[in-house]
Amino acid sequence: MKISIGNDHAGPEYKKAIVKHLEAKGLVIMNYGTDTLDSVDYPDFVHPVAKDVESGAVDFGILICGSANGVAMTANKYQNIRAGICWMNEITKLTRQHNNANICCIPARYTSITQALQIVNTFLETKFEGGRHQNRVNKIPITPC
User: Fold this and answer.
1) Which end of the chain, N or C, is more open, meaning fewer C-beta atoms within 10 Å of its C-beta?
2) Above 80 in pLDDT, residue 144?
3) Into how many domains does the chain fold?
4) Span 19-44, pLDDT tens digits
5) Taking a C-beta distance cutoff of 8 angstroms, is the pair 99, 137 a contact?
6) What CATH number should be reported for the domain holding residue 29?
């Protein structure tokens, strides 16, 4: 499995822990995040992740910022991206099962690194249920008139 990850200045320690955790599982990681606490603009790290996911170059994306709102808003501008804010396992599981999310957005200021690792595991291990949810997911992208 191949994962694309990006983060702003709120998440370098989270990213480092997640990358180490996923590489230990044998996953391939595309890393676009910053490694410092110096202020950066989160969209600069979101766009490469969203492009990787949308193009199929990777299986899933992970984005980290303070609240996860900014990265989710930016990623969801892409036509075939479904980025969900995941701050607890139950929400993460539903984001995958019901919404077929392909990017997991983690709020570094509202989760611990331990929680973030659990969220990543839940996100990657949970399957989309399809069925009645597929029709709803099909209605998410805007189709040109």
Assistant:
1) C
2) no
3) 1
4) 999 999 999 999 999 999 999 999 99
5) yes
6) 3.40.1400.10
* pLDDT, tens digit (0-9, with 9 covering 90-100), for 82-113: 999 999 999 999 999 999 999 999 999 999 99
**Of 131 and 82, which is predicted with more confidence?**
82
Answer for the pair 19, 117: CB distance below 8 angstroms, yes or no: no
Question: What CA–CA distances, in Å, run from 72 to 1, 103, 107, 130?
Answer: 22, 8, 10, 22
Catalytic residues: 65, 98
What is the amino acid identity at position 15? K
The terminus-to-terminus CA distance of the chain in angstroms comes to 36
Range of the domain at 87: 2-138
Contact 86, 111 (CB under 8 A): no
